[in-house]
Specification:
mainly alpha, Aminoglycoside 3'-phosphotransferase, Chain: A, domain 2, two-stranded antiparallel sheet, globular
């Protein structure tokens, strides 16, 4: 696989282990946009597909949502509402969201590297979609302050 993957994963794991205790609870695990449903009669929004749900740091779902929304600028409204109404202490999100976003980027990198290693084409047309996912994770990590660890392209680039 691409050499940057192992370096980035090790760096992010070390950073995660150095974090203070975070607020834990039930996390969805993958709150992608297609998992949200609006009830037009009540105006309430629900979240489906809880198969990956587990106990974990609540910031993981926040970091996932920021990823799916396209980054800080696109997620500004979400982050403001979550900070005001969410269950996290106000300083936790501000102090540790960047680290959790790097953790989420590493999860994406590991996921797509694993798919490539297994030649897993489940749900996709060809392997290029897995390469795109891996390179999107690399670009996300670069944008989150890890440019030196996320250099280079491998096969499929």
């Amino acid at each position: 696989m691409e050499p940057w993957v192992r370096l980035a994963l090790a760096s992010v794991q070390a950073e995660y282990r150095s974090l203070p205790p975070l607020t834990w609870g039930l996390v969805h695990g993958d709150p992608a946009p297609e998992a949200f449903r609006l009830d037009p009669e009540t105006g309430r929004v629900g979240l489906i597909d809880w198969a990956a749900a587990t106990r974990g740091p609540l910031l993981y779902d926040v970091a996932s949502t920021v990823m799916y929304l396209g980054g800080d600028t696109a997620a500004r409204s979400f982050l403001g509402v979550y900070a005001a109404a969410g269950p996290l202490p106000t300083d936790e999100m501000g102090a540790h969201l960047s680290a959790m976003r790097r953790y989420r980027g590493a999860v994406q990198a590991a996921y797509f590297a694993g798919r490539l290693a297994r030649h897993d084409l489940t749900g996709i047309a060809d392997e290029e979609e897995n390469w795109k996912g891996l390179h999107d994770a690399r670009d996300m990590l670069k944008g989150l302050g890890m440019p030196d660890l996320c250099r280079g392209d491998g096969a499929g680039s």
